[in-house]
Amino acid sequence: MAAPALAGTKPTVAPAPAPAPAPAPVVSPWAVELGVGCNRAARNVLKDVEDQKRVHTWSWDVTGVYNLDDSNALTLRLGYAYGNRQQDEDSRIITHTWSLMPGYRYTYALNDQWSLFAGANVGIANWSWKGKGCCHKSGWGWGYSAEVGVSYAICPKWNVFAAYQFSGNTANHTAVHEDGWRQRSKEQNFHGVRLGVGYTF
User: Model confidence over 127-148: pLDDT tens digits?
Assistant: First the structure.
């Protein structure tokens, strides 16, 4: 008897359960940068030497980056700089600088692609100079750098950057020539441009 009474009733269809939201992709806090720089020396290499030309440098660096959040990051930079300049017909000065410097960086995003950043690094540096045909001297000191720049995200993993950088070190030393003359050097600092590419893991 119930069958005829329910014959015109539409069957109830239970709605399908909503799919669970996909988890947000995991963003790695780690990144690495490869940079090159052109640096103009602000000081002469040697003290008490007249008509001396300053020795500018080319530099290369590898920088590890650990992002604390979207704006703040810790960095660790291994860098090398090379300088070579003729002083006169018989004299040339060659310099080498190695540095390892931890640091901090602040980044301000303008949009999804463009960002401004500022950072500073302080660590150890080994600086050496050599006068062609005379003496060679190296020493350790503090290394430092500060930079302000802009970066552009090519894609989520890759970016390119350009920055103004002020850098230097406190490694000064004295070379003693064969005739007993003591040649003193100056602590070096530079104004430069740093360009490079970054990759986020």
Answer: 998 876 566 788 899 999 999 9
